[in-house]
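Can't paste images in this forum, so I'm doing it all in text. The chain is below; anyone willing to post the predicted structure tokens underneath?
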Amino acid sequence: MEGVILASSSCDTEKEIICAPENVLELFKFEEAWFSIGPFDWTRTVFLMFLATGIAMLLLYLGLRGRRIVPTKFGVAIESLVAFVKDDIAKGIIGPQGVRYTPYLLAVFMLVLVGNLFEVTPLINFPITSSMALPLIISVLTWIIFVWVGFAKNGISYLTGIIWPRSVPLALRPLVGLIELVSTFVLRPITLAVRLFANMVAGHLMLTLLLASGIIFIGEFNLRSIIGVPWFVFGLGIFVFEIVVAVLQAYIITLLSAVYVQTSVNPDH
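Text version of the structure:
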């Protein structure tokens, strides 16, 4: 509950009804290094990113190793998740060629899902996707893949098809081509990253401030406790809602990654 502690550290319960730190960035930036390996500093955020990667890999390994005639419930759950990404997202969006992109899409889904769920994980309570670094890295990797695939499969016609879209009336082609060029090569990675980042930042901020305010005011055992009760109850509602958001955002960023790859594999569609 480090976020709650930060929110409550400078709370004036006589004048404020929401307890927030002087600088809200304190809820998202953990710059103090736990230890260093050469020039590389291990902060709390860096550790959590490696932890999320390890958990995602471990879940897949434990769920898919040693296929059994009668699989365990955990094995069925992991196999269903893999099948969902492979069949519904990779093949469903990209087509038969989507199978080759399944490992990347599955890695994106699992890493973002685990990282998002850190928001509601006791003793962590911090979604690593609320740090712009991770969404941006995923977005740039997706951008590199769909641009590379576009040129590899279609050659220079991939670029000319964007700049001069033949399905658009002749008079509109220059304008539409310019919009598509900027959208494809500039805006896609930015919007993909910001979409995930903004949703997780908003959820983390609301959850921390509401729970912090509720806990502090209820703990005073006076008339101001009346303020704390609805804040805390509302915070619990946001807590449950954040679980849904965590899963939904992992699905959305994976789905959009597949859609962008599909536009390179099949640019005419």
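The longest helix spans residues 173-218. The mean pLDDT is 81.
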